[in-house]
């Protein structure tokens, strides 16, 4: 028997390894299995080259457990090792590379991905003792038994082993004993071993016998050694891709499209990516792209390897060329990884373009689900945006789809304004903005549907990218202002009438300055009163809301325009019924209120920080005076408004109709409106 010290320099490397890699303890099983797979495949390679002529036999890798004794055994029928090889690969290389690895990353523990690099050594994260029983494939080889109890000391002796191959016996430590339980092993196999390229057996197949499930003597193979991505696209049918999707995500709905990746130069990469049909957010979070290295599961956090917008996709990427034992930041600067990332982007764009060209109908049917990926891609990846320009679609309120060019053709004639800008009208909510959409359509304009999560940003991007194009929500202004043409319409109201009318409406709107009243010369059959919200302000507020309301726009109150249609018969009528004298006086009262209100506001802000008892008599007096004056003026104004009688009621009614068309009339105001309507009908 040989005894020795493992060739590491640091005496206490075992404790270090346990401490540092704590969170990733479970990878020990993957490491042991992938060594078994390697050993099996090496033997097959030798056989192919004629360097091994013996009987291959059953090369299934077998896992067995003894939960009570805290033991897991992994047996393969691969190349095995001679005593010299154990000494070289286990005692020297495996341990010293582990040591080197830790040395390198000891100050940067957080960035250790923890995948690979530690190989055999990782078994000691969970074991108090590891044994190797092995016999090389070589003709005159003898069996060897190696054991090590988690210290740099090991024992190596001859052992009478019948079969070629290696048994790794893992004696778990007290802390890790749950790993020897059947359910835990199954869980880990499901995660790491599902697609290992060599059959792996754990437990027995079961069958129904006399009302219960019983073990048969047939081994249960837990993996699919030939997953779809390892096959040639030509050998697969649509159904195979769907079946594989189900294999990956048993609960997922059928995907929209797949993309089969297959590259061998300048890097090796295979895989299948899917555009999923997203039902809810949970699926996006749960069903992620899985990264494999030669069919061994590595991780499902692929940030940095796959461009960000594609992390929403599902599927598998398998590449031995992605450096795994490096930090994330290093990963992103790795030139292979950069190439992989841009290759994937290109492939995805090409595939979408093909489907668009070959089967536009299918593409349109799936567009609503695809939209979010494509927009996200276009917003975050210039190269993708460039490619996607050809197939990105716009959808109008009639459910028709257009490319940019097609849409331009459609609206060019009617929706070009006097500055030669092509005005795209859009809605973010077909129901809420119904009145405006209908108004636009009745003029022969087309309205786009932009109700997606990313549309606010997308509209901004399109405005920058498309030449001479602007986007306006249908309710951003009255139609004639949204798309301004050369000809301006006559007004049926005189300037004086307009001047008299505006204060009456203003008098019946909230006093907080959230409404600006204006008169526009619109069509006779357009609505008498419309409430609009400026495109710019609304967009700023929307964007700020998406960013959590962190900029100044988020804090601004909503501001609306109340537009009076000077050509609508109701407005014309109203204006002519308003007593000119009272109308003029109302305007004067308004003007008189303004400075007093301002003074009152100033006093209020000035006194706001002080306590009531700290105010001097003089200050209190001043405040009372201003307050009184303001109250008087307001009462005067109210009296004048009331003196209009029926006209005052009509003004209220018209404002409420405007609000109603915008879905803004609620609660008490809505109730008042209903009652007033009844009264007006009775009159
Ligand atoms: N089951 C096995 N059969 C035959 N040889 C093995 C087996 N397990 C380990 N070895 C030998 O021990 C060496 C060290 O294994 P270890 O897992 O530490 O590193 P690796 O597999 O070479 O690389 P990696 O860091 O990617 O795991 C292997 O290269 C192999 O030569």
Automatic annotation (TrEMBL):
Keywords: ATP-binding, Chaperone, Cytoplasm, Nucleotide-binding, Stress response. ATP binds at residues 31, 35, 76, 81, 166, 328. Coiled coil: none annotated. The keyword Magnesium does not apply. Residues 605-624 are annotated as: Disordered. InterPro entries: HATPase_C_sf, HATPase_dom, Heat_shock_protein_90_CS, HSP90_C, Hsp90_fam, Hsp90_N, Ribosomal_Su5_D2-typ_SF. SMART domains: HATPase_c. The keyword ATP-binding applies. Residues 24-176 form the Histidine kinase/HSP90-like ATPase domain. GO terms for molecular function: ATP binding; ATP hydrolysis activity; ATP-dependent protein folding chaperone; unfolded protein binding. Pfam families: HATPase_c_3, HSP90. PANTHER family: HEAT SHOCK PROTEIN 90 FAMILY MEMBER. Belongs to the heat shock protein 90 family. This is Chaperone protein HtpG. It comes from Salinivirga cyanobacteriivorans.
């Amino acid at each position: 028997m040989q005894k020795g010290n493992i060739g590491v320099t640091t005496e206490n490397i075992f404790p270090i390894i346990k401490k540092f890699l704590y969170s990733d303890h479970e990878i020990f099983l993957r490491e042991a299995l992938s060594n078994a797979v390697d050993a099996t495949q090496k033997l097959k390679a030798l056989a192919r080259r004629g360097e091994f002529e013996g009987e291959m036999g059953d090369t299934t890798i077998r896992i067995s457990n003894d939960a009570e004794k805290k033991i897991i055994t992994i047996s393969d029928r691969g190349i095995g090792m001679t005593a010299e090889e154990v000494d070289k690969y286990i005692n020297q290389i495996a341990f010293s590379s582990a040591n080197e690895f830790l040395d390198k990353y000891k100050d940067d523990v957080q960035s250790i991905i923890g995948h690979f690099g530690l190989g055999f050594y990782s078994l000691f994260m969970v074991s108090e003792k590891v044994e190797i029983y092995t016999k090389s494939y070589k003709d005159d080889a003898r069996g060897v038994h190696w054991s090590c109890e988690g210290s740099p000391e090991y024992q190596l002796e001859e052992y009478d082993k019948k079969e070629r191959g290696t048994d790794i016996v893992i004696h778990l430590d007290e802390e890790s004993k749950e790993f020897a339980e059947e359910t835990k092993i199954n869980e880990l196999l499901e995660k790491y071993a599902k697609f290992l390229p060599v059959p792996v057996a754990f437990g027995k197949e079961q069958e129904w016998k006399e009302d219960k499930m019983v073990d048969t003597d047939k081994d249960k193979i837990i993996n699919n050694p030939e997953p779809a991505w390892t096959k040639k696209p030509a050998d697969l049918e649509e159904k195979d891709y769907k079946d594989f999707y189900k294999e990956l995500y048993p609960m997922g709905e059928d995907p929209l499209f797949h993309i089969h990746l297959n590259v061998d130069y300048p890097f090796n990469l295979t895989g299948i990516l899917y555009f999923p049909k997203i039902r809810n957010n949970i699926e996006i979070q749960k069903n992620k792209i899985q990264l494999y290295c030669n069919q061994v599961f590595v991780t499902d956090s692929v940030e940095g390897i796959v461009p960000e917008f594609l992390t929403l996709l599902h599927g598998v990427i398998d590449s031995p060329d992605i450096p795994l034992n490096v930090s994330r930041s290093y990963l992103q600067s790795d030139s292979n990884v950069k190439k992989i990332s841009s290759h994937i982007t290109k492939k995805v764009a090409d595939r979408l373009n093909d489907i668009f060209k070959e089967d536009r109908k299918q593409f349109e049917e799936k567009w609503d689900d695809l939209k979010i990926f494509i927009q996200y891609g276009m917003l975050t990846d210039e190269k993708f945006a460039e490619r996607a320009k050809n197939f990105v679609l716009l959808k109008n309120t009639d459910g028709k789809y257009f490319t940019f060019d097609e849409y331009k053709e459609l609206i060019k004639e009617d929706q070009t304004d006097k500055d030669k800008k092509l005005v795209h009208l859009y809605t973010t909510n077909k129901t809420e903005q119904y009145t405006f959409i209908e108004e636009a359509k009745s003029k022969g304009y087309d309205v786009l549907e932009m109700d997606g999560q990313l549309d606010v940003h997308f509209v901004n991007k399109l405005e920058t990218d498309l030449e001479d194009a602007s986007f306006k929500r249908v309710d951003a202004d009255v139609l004639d202002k949204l798309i301004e043409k050369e000809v301006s319409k006559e007004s049926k109201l005189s300037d004086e009438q307009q001047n008299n009318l505006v204060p009456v409406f203003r008098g019946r709107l909230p006093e907080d300055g959230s409404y600006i009243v204006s008169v526009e010369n619109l069509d006779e059959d357009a609505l008498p009163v419309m409430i609009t919200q400026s495109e710019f302000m609304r967009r700023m507020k929307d964007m700020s809301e998406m960013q959590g309301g962190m900029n100044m726009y988020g804090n601004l109150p909503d501001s609306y325009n109340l537009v009076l249609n000077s050509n609508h018969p109701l407005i014309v009528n109203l204006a002519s019924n308003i007593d000119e004298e009272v109308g003029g006086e109302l305007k004067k009262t308004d003007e008189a209120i303004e400075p007093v209100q301002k003074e009152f506001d100033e006093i209020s802000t000035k006194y706001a920080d002080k306590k009531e008892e700290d105010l001097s008599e003089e200050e209190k007096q001043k405040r009372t005076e201003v307050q009184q004056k303001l109250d008087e003026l307001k009462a005067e104004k109210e009296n004048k408004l009331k003196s209009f009688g029926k006209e005052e009621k009509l003004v209220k009614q018209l404002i409420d109709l405007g609000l109603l068309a915008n879905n803004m009339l609620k609660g008490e105001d809505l109730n008042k409106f209903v009652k007033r309507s009844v009264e007006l009908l009775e009159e």
